[in-house]
Amino acid sequence: MPANPRKDDPFFPVEENFFPPDWYQGAIFAGAAEDRTRHVLFFTPTMKRQLEHSKTWFMDATFYFVDDPIKQLFTINGFIKNDKQEMKPLLFCCMTRRRAADSRFIPED
C-alpha cells in the first residue's frame, strides 16, 4: 500500500494499479511555470460515450469530503438515455487547487 501523498504536493504519484481498468484517464495541467498544478481525471470509455451523447451537461463541485492535496471534486453529469432518464455523474476531476481558472478547460477527444 503506498503512503498517503503530502498535503502540499499537487504532483503526487498516482498508483494506477489501485483503480479498475480504464477508470483513471490521466491528468490535465493548469497554470504556467512556477504556478502550475495538476488535476486528475476519472471516467470510463462508456461514461465518455454517454457524456458525448448528452444534450445538456450539469457541472457540480464539492469541497467537503476530499482531503489535501485534493481541494475539490468536480463532476460533469449528464442524462442517461434509458426508461428512467436518470442524471448521473459521468466525469470526475480531483482538483488540487480551487481557482476559477482551473475550472476552465476544454475536453479533448
Instruction: Count every beta strand, where a strand is a DSSP E run of 2 or more residues.
Output: 5
- Structural class call reads mainly beta
In what order do the strands lie side by side in the largest sheet?
Answer: 1-2-5-4-3
Order of helices and strands: EEHEEE
Overall spatial form? globular
Q: Could you tell me how far the N terminus lies from the C terminus, measured between alpha carbons in angstroms?
A: 33 Å
Radius of gyration: 15 Å
What's the mean pLDDT score?
A: 84
Instruction: Report the biggest beta sheet as strand number plus sense, adding barrel if it closes.
Output: 5 strands, antiparallel
How many H/I helical runs?
A: 1
* Beta-strand share of residues: 25-35%
Report on this model:
The chain is mainly β. It has one domain (24-102). 8% of the residues lie in helices and 33% in strands. The chain has a five-stranded antiparallel β-sheet. The longest helix is centred in the middle third of the chain and has 9 residues, at 45-53. The N and C termini lie far apart (33 Å).
Q: What are the defining features of this structure?
A:
109 residues; mainly beta; 5-stranded antiparallel sheet; 1 helix
